Amino acid sequence: MFLHNLKYEMLSSLRVKEVIIWLIIFPIALGTCFKVAFSSVYENTMVFETIDVAVVEETDEFSAQMFRQVIGDVKMEDEPMFKAKYTTKEKALKLLEDDKVSAVIFEGDPFEGSGFSMKTASNGLKATIVQSFLDQYSHNIELIMTAVTDSGSGTYEDVLSTLSAEVNSVAKKQMTHGNTDMYVQYFYNLLAMVALYGSLSGLHIAIGAQANLSALGARRNVSPTPKLIQITASLCATFIQEAVCTAVAVTYTHFVLGIDYGDRLGFVYLAAIIGGCLGVSLGFMVGSIGRMSMGAKNAICNAVSLGLCFFSGLMDGNMKAKVELSAPWFNKINPAALISDSIYCLNVYEDLSRYWEKIVSMMIVAVVLTLLGFLMTRRRRYASV
Amino acid sequence: METVVKISGLVKSYKELTAVNDLDLEIKEGEVFGLLGPNGSGKSTTINCLLALLDLDKGDIEIFGKKMTPTAYDIKKDIGVIMQNVAVFEELTVYENIDYFCGLYITDKATRKQYVDEAIKFSGLEDFVKFRPKKLSGGLLRRLNIACGIAHKPKLIILDEPTVAVDPQSRNKILEGIIELNKNGATVIYTSHYMEEVEQICSRIAIIDKGKKIAEGTKEELKKMVKNTETITILACEMEGSLLGEINELPHVIESGLEDKKLTVHFSGGKHNLLRVLDCLQKHDVSFGRVYSELPTLNDVFLELTGTALRDQEG
Q: Do A219 and A330 belong to one domain?
């Protein structure tokens, strides 16, 4: 009985046009667009030019010395990122006016609560890079201060040397053969999107199983095959269908578009496939809620999928970091974030523990969503059909 | 004959609307039982309650002598259901659809194959086995819907308005098929708002309106319930209106009327009514055209019992 159901559910689900369009053709098209768009951005980044900046000397404290050392050391692809001129405020502004420098940096003392600031003649890529550098630097100083405060003793120098040693040792441990380029993140999110589009198939399972939502559901409900067997067979068939679709997406992006997922491709496939199952479970759960029209449920499912992808960074690469700051718990349960994170972990960490942590989280969320769906579709009789 | 379906005191409401109101029905083995009523009269709700799809407010339902529940799988395996809406997989072919639904009832592969082939032959779909439902005409789609419901050779077949939006040729094929299924031993419950269909195939009929059963019996028994047993219509009748009084005096005449040279005379019982009317017209040298004599229909029964015509209420 189960195998009979499974066979026809698979046949039926693999022939659904929407599945082919949304789960195979659309991701291939979007992936190709990503490749074309981001490749040019990526290549532009490669021809990086050192940025001329003027630094206004206002103090000679330890913090200023440290900043000057950092600004002199920081490099981009073996090229110095900044060429700094240390001068007075008036001269610095004159240099900016004469277009001799791209930005003027005003030194602050973050240890004393005054931050860095900058002035530019116009907005642009160079101004953005200087601002990002200053933000990152301030953020790191803040972390050091917190560490010092928490330790309760020692000097900044002690803490800095300890942190440097730790960072160095961790850096060695983290080295992988993976690809950590920023733009690859978009492909991780693309895989997450393919996985979450599985929610549409999950939605159809819920609708096709309930007598009050479809004629097919009514016909199946009056048959002697228990609902549990029918739904389980439908879920299994859809999991397989989704696995095929996510595998196609990984294969296409890796082998055709040449996206480097690192040297652990098998694990990437696994993460994408489990992500697909998670997507199906999400759709099944949404489809099981209440008695709404098929169109309404489809719209909810699409909106939820796209919303989750948005928060995981499909439309804005920094979004996940922003969510991490304001609601870190959301990243831990957001299916899209879990899927993209699991692949990201593979490329960043040699150790697989973080990867497995994400995989287990995905499986737990999938099981919880499926059980919720079962609980809601388990009803035997309906108020109306 | 054994009782196959027994419905006692069934009540089902949707908020303030009582869809089925204290309905009792008993259907015997081998019957083709018709449930006749206008749209919204409670036919489909009754069927859905019977199939344990709906929460009942009150009442008991027994099928094959056992209480019907959503998990009564031993009962369900002997029931075939053809719903009002076509319920098939768009992505599966005709053969695959019938095989899928048959497989929900029959586990043995060889038996299933034989049953599926028989269902295809029965429904005249031999030339369309590899077609997907979208490629089928409305009539063929309805036949597929029926084939999916009866392929497992059920003892009880429930058809809920299976001929809605079907061309006359397919409708006749469907009705002939139902009679054949009944001859092969199946008990049939047939709901429709088409009285001609019900009259054509049903051995016993229950008329329901606004959720209540208003009459039950064979078509002959139902027709006896109406006062008007015969209506004679004469067209192009060149008679004076004053002659109506004499016609009204004829035996068994209930009433008569003349409008646009069309004479209509209603009778209650009696024999040779037509001859008497024609004799009267001949006596007064009245010329006339076509003459019709109509026996009462189920619509007349419905009209007499509810005050409205069945056709008036069709949505």
A: yes
Nearest Cβ partner for B91 among A5, A12, A224: A12
- d(CA A137, nearest CA chain B) in Å: 58
- A223 and B92: CB-CB below 8 Å? no
Which chain A residue lies closest to B87 (C-alpha atoms)?
A: A216
B53 → chain A, closest CA residue? A381
- Taking only the tens of pLDDT, chain A with its 385 residues reads 899 999 999 999 888 888 788 888 988 999 899 888 877 665 555 556 788 889 888 776 777 788 888 888 887 767 788 888 888 888 888 888 888 888 898 877 666 666 778 888 776 777 778 887 887 787 777 777 777 776 665 565 666 665 554 444 444 444 455 555 667 878 888 888 888 888 989 999 999 999 988 999 999 999 999 999 999 999 999 999 999 999 999 999 999 998 888 778 899 999 999 999 999 999 999 999 877 877 888 888 888 888 888 888 777 767 777 888 788 888 888 888 888 888 888 877 778 888 999 999 999 999 999 999 999 888 778 888 7
Q: Do A211 and B53 touch (CB under 8 A)?
A: yes
Which pLDDT value is given to residue A140? 78
A143 and A276: one domain?
Answer: no
Binning pLDDT at 50, 70 and 90, where does residue B215 land?
very high
Could you tell me which chain B residue has the CA closest to the CA of A215? B87
Show the domains of chain B with their CATH numbers: 3-222 (3.40.50.300), 230-295 (3.30.70.100)
Tell me the shortest Cα–Cα distance from B60 to chain A, in angstroms: 15
Predicted pLDDT of residue B246: 94
Are residues A222 and B55, on separate chains, in Cβ contact within 8 Å?
A: no
Nearest by CB: B52 against A5, A12, A381: A381
The amino acid present at A197, given as its one-letter code, is: Y
Q: Residue A192: which of A118, A256, A249, A146 has the closest Cα?
A: A249
Q: Supply the pTM of this predicted model.
A: 0.75
Count of structural domains, chain A: 2
Residues A31 and A92 in one domain: no
Size of interface A-B (CB pairs under 8 A): 89
Q: Which of residues 107-136 of B touch A (CB under 8 A)?
A: 107
Identify all chain A residues contacting B71, using CB atoms and an 8 Å cutoff.
226, 380
Chosen domain end from A138, A154, A170 = A154
Using a CB-CB cut-off of 8 Å, the residues of chain A touching B149 are: 219
What pLDDT is recorded for position A266? 92
Query: Does the distance separating the beta carbons of B88 and A216 come in below 8 Å?
Result: yes
Return the residue in B100, B106, B108, B111 with the most chain A beta carbons within 10 A, the one to mutate for interface testing. B100
Residue range(s) defining the domain that contains residue A113: 50-154
Question: Would residue A165 count as lying in a domain?
Answer: no
Q: Do B86 and A215 touch (CB under 8 A)?
A: yes
Residues A147 and A223 in one domain: no
Tell me whether residue A145 is in a domain: yes
B105 contact residues in A (CB cutoff 8 A): 223-225
Judged by CB atoms closer than 8 Å, whether chains meet at A221 and B70 is answered as yes
